[in-house]
Amino acid sequence: MLPLVDYLIETLGYYPVFAMVGAFGLWVIWFIWPKAGDAVESINTDEYLRLSENPHVLIDVRTPDEYTEGHAPRAVNIPLDQIRSSNRDELAAAIGGKTVVCICATGRRSAVAARRLAKLGYKKIHNFSDGMNAWSAARLPEKTNPQGEKQWHIS
Fold first, then answer.
1. CA 99 to chain centre
2. If DSSP codes are grouped into helix, strand and coil, which group holds residue 59?
3. Which pLDDT value is given to residue 31?
């Protein structure tokens, strides 16, 4: 073992040394470890309507078929499975330095997408926690893509 650890064990005994090591580990995990999820803020429909007055990118992370059935007018379709580090350049082109709002049907997939974007280094990220279901229920404008119309997404 390390000389300092040996000295502490001889002087204090095993349990206090293990307690100190455990406390230090918990301190590192709690205060020092980077928390990518902290960069993500969940917002509801009303908060989104206020935020939408500022420049932002609304990313619809549902599948292309779900997106075609109905989406927010300014939404860009980037399915959840395409939000990954191997698509970093395409994501940067789509997002730039703008605030990002992720949306899906219920808020679950968009929360995952928002955390992934945070881990990729994006700072201003919001999860539209109400999802498109609440968007539709609030009778906010929706756009549908007729069959054959191309929607943008990373390939």
1. 12
2. strand
3. 58
Q: Which two tokens stand for residue 144?
A: 């549908």
* Overall domain count for the chain: 2
Annotated catalytic residue within 104, 105, 117, 118: 104
Closest CA to 61 of 81, 84, 87: 81
Task: Please tell me whether residues 28 and 59 are part of one structural domain.
Answer: no
Give the DSSP letter of residue 74.
T
- CA–CA dist 63, 152 (Å, integer): 12
Instruction: Return phi, psi of residue 29, to 5°.
Output: -60, -40
* pTM for the structure as a whole: 0.71
User: Kindly report the CA angle at 38 between 32 and 43, in degrees rounded to 5?
Assistant: 170
Active-site residue, 102 included: no
